[in-house]
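so my prof wants the structure for this chain in the tokens format not the other one, which i didnt know existed until like an hour ago. anyway here's the sequence
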Amino acid sequence: MVTISVILKGVVNMLLNLNSKDYLYLQVYEKIKNKILNGQLKFDEKLPSIRNLAHENKISYNTVTNAYVLLEEEGYIYSKGRIGFFVSKKKDFLKLEKIKPINNDVNAKLDFSFSGVDLNFPFYNWKKSFNKAIDQFNLEFLKKSDPKGDIHLRKSISNYLKKARNIDANYENIIISAG
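here's what i got, hopefully its the right format
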């Protein structure tokens, strides 16, 4: 295993695995993020410049840039123009929970796959609920919807992009499509 040691102001020591499936910038990102979360890098502490970190550790400028951009997008660090990057307050961090993988070995009561219909599916209850929806909403749900997709979903995506990635995307510019 080929590794390189990355040193940030003597505070962050990390080994990057050159043989890993993970991109180097993600390894740098994870190491710095973990040091911030563990309190080894404190609020307002200055990080090394992108050039210095890249040069000292013989890694690409773009590798460090990508790591810093991702850290900044998720609120772990912030930049001051022509001064550098600094550790953010913990309350500014964006917490994204990892999605647990689906366990396909579970014996489910109902089969919702495209390959077939479960014979135990409660068709009577489904039909009753469907008819109730038709009665309640009349033909409202059959009307043509916005060709760009559901407006509530597009607004939610716009809000998420602003908070999580600091991208100011107007919901009118978001299109949701199948496939």
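also thought this was worth mentioning. The CA atoms of residues 110 and 118 lie 6 Å apart.
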